[in-house]
Amino acid sequence: MTVEETMAELQSLGDAQTKKTLMRHGAQEPLYGVKVADLKKVLKKTKKNHALALELYKTGNSDAMYLAGLMADEKQVTREQLQAWVEGAYWYYLSEFTVPWIAADSAHGYALGLEWIESDKPLIAAAGWATLASFAGVHADETLDIEGYRALLDRVEKEIHQAPNRVKYTMNGFVISVASYVSELTAYAKRTANQIGPVEVFMGDTACKTPLASEYIEKVSARGSIGKKRKTARC
Prior knowledge:
mainly alpha
């Protein structure tokens, strides 16, 4: 499929209510309001197509950008491409899901995550924490910088309540992810979760809530899922 054919299909799949919901969460024009389930139907046709993914992301259409993240090839994506993508991720669906997922699946995730969390732009900093969280979920513990992750947990404990809105949210998710996926750090991350307690994040005109990290981790533990890695960060 060409970029024009793909965009035409996305337009045909657009849903007014979905578009309204996405815009309430922060999406802006242009977008069609395509449900994720329908994006995945398009993905079945294109499969991984890195060149097409790059073209779709450049359109600036949120639906196309989200699809691009699912379609991109983690083995082909470069640091430069990921940097361009994070700079173009203008709302949290893109900055906390699309870009972090493909970054985490790639070999560049940890290094870029560490760079991005230092950004003075909240969306990029949030992308960094989300990338580091996802990276822990898809890479074997023996390949992870365990002490680096421990130091990041300490940093979250010190900084989370003063951090910008979406950065707070992704820091909280980082603690949950490390506790859930990195067995060696589960106990340490649980302690961090208990120390930070409830995290207040303004969600705007939505019904979304910030999970209490300590409770979320206990649920993961109760179902016996601690340490179980994901095959891919993308879903």
